[in-house]
């Protein structure tokens, strides 16, 4: 049995990790740690997580006694904590953005210097495209939720599109903003309303560009990405539109997508004429993808949905941790959403 700890267990992603791991016979959740909420019973924050004790203070020496630590904190604390744990010989899955990008790209998109620019790079944990590297990694950087959803739908066809024309529209539920309260997240403001945010500058833009280039083995594109806040708690949709590359048609696009994901348990390419809906994947580690081509404009529209807290965060983190710990990759993860 492997022992694990979760740092940042007071946040949505941390709590989702507890939910996904709580009934596992092969994993012992040894420590649930937090910063400002340390000392509070977990059930005070998450009434679905009864009998999970009290949140502990963050103690590096104690955390380092575990086989693996999930770090689900903001970037700042993760920049300091993750290298300390790695140096102590503990394997880490980092759900923050602290180790997803080269230091210069991080500084550009996050507006501040990276605290440890010379850190040994983490393995970028988009599991379906990095299994071998994840299995042997000391530190895995879990991708962002928008990024996961967009990349899964674009990587198999990156060389079949004119990426210089790529525009991505994203829509996410409110849980993507985290547990901290804000006026913009007030139920009176969100209910019955849709709005764009971080227009022409969302932080995930650089992550999509960087890893579409690296994992898609194409020149890193410069893209337009606009996220929107939706009046729902969970779920994320990306709609990616780009011109087809010369000589490419819808059949070639669809065949490439289907071939890449034929043996992937968590990714489903929908039949022609069907479109994915967020409700179908809520609570699961699934990603549903649809491909369509408008012959009039020669543009492909590729849509993709995930649960932002599962495949977009905690579920993918568990998928990566399973590989790191030598366990079946899909252990504890569902491919079927809660519907309706």
Describe the structure.
This protein has helices at residues 12-21, 42-45, 60-63, 75-87, 103-110, 131-135, 145-154, 187-190, 204-215, 250-261, 310-324; strands at 2-7, 27-33, 68-71, 91-94, 123-124, 139-141, 161-172, 195-196, 224-229, 236-244, 267-269, 287-294, 299-306. It is of the alpha/beta class and 340 residues long. The chain folds into two domains: 2-121, NAD(P)-binding Rossmann-like Domain (Rossmann fold); 147-308, Dihydrodipicolinate Reductase, domain 2 (2-Layer Sandwich), CATH 3.30.360. The protein has a seven-stranded mixed β-sheet. A six-stranded parallel β-sheet has the order 2-1-3-4-6-5, sandwiched between helices. α7 packs parallel to α9. The longest helix is centred in the C-terminal third of the chain and has 15 residues, at 310-324. The model has no long low-confidence stretch (mean pLDDT 96).
Low-confidence stretches: none
Q: How many distinct domains?
A: 2
Overall SS class = alpha/beta
| Rounded Rg | 19 Å
User: Within the largest sheet, what's the order of strands?
Assistant: 8-9-7-10-13-12-11
The biggest beta sheet reads: 7 strands, mixed
Helix content: 25-40%
**CATH superfamily of the largest domain, called what?**
Dihydrodipicolinate Reductase, domain 2
First and last CA, distance: 36 Å
What's the overall average pLDDT, rounded?
96
Strand fraction: 15-25%
Describe the global form: globular
- By CATH, the topology of the largest domain is Dihydrodipicolinate Reductase, domain 2
**CATH top level label of the largest domain:** Alpha Beta
Order of helices and strands: EHEHHEHEHEHEHEHEHEEHEEEH
Number of helices: 11
């Amino acid at each position: 049995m492997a022992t694990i700890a979760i740092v940042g267990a007071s946040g949505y992603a941390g709590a989702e990790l507890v939910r996904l791991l709580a009934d596992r016979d092969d994993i012992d959740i040894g420590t649930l740690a937090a910063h400002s909420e340390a000392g509070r019973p977990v059930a005070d924050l998450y009434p679905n997580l009864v009998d999970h004790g009290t949140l502990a203070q963050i103690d590096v020496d104690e955390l380092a006694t575990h086989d693996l630590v999930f770090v689900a904190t903001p970037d700042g604390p993760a920049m300091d904590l993750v290298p300390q744990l790695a140096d102590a010989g503990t394997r880490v899955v980092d759900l923050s953005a602290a180790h997803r990008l080269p230091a210069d790209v991080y500084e550009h998109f996050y507006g501040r210097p990276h605290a440890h620019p010379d850190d040994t790079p983490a393995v970028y944990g988009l599991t379906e495209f990095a299994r071998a590297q994840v299995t042997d990694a000391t530190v895995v950087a879990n991708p962002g939720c928008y990024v996961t959803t967009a990349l899964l739908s674009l990587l198999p066809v990156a060389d079949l599109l004119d990426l210089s024309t790529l525009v991505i529209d994203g829509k996410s539920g409110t849980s993507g903003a985290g547990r901290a309260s804000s006026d913009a997240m007030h139920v009176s403001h969100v209910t019955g309303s849709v709005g764009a945010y971080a227009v022409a500058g969302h932080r995930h833009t650089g992550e999509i560009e960087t890893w579409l280039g690296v994992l898609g083995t194409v020149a890193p594109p410069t893209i337009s990405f606009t996220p929107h806040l939706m009046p729902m708690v969970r779920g994320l949709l990306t709609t990616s539109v780009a011109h087809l590359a010369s000589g490419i048609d819808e059949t070639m696009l669809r065949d490439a997508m289907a071939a890449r994901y034929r043996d992937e348990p968590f990714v489903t390419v929908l039949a022609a004429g069907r479109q994915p809906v967020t409700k179908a994947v809520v609570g699961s580690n699934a990603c549903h993808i649809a491909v369509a081509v408008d012959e009039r404009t020669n543009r492909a529209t590729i849509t993709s949905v995930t649960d932002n807290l599962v495949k977009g965060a905690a579920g993918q983190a568990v998928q990566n941790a399973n590989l790191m710990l030598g366990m079946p990759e899909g252990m504890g993860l569902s491919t079927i959403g809660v519907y309706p």
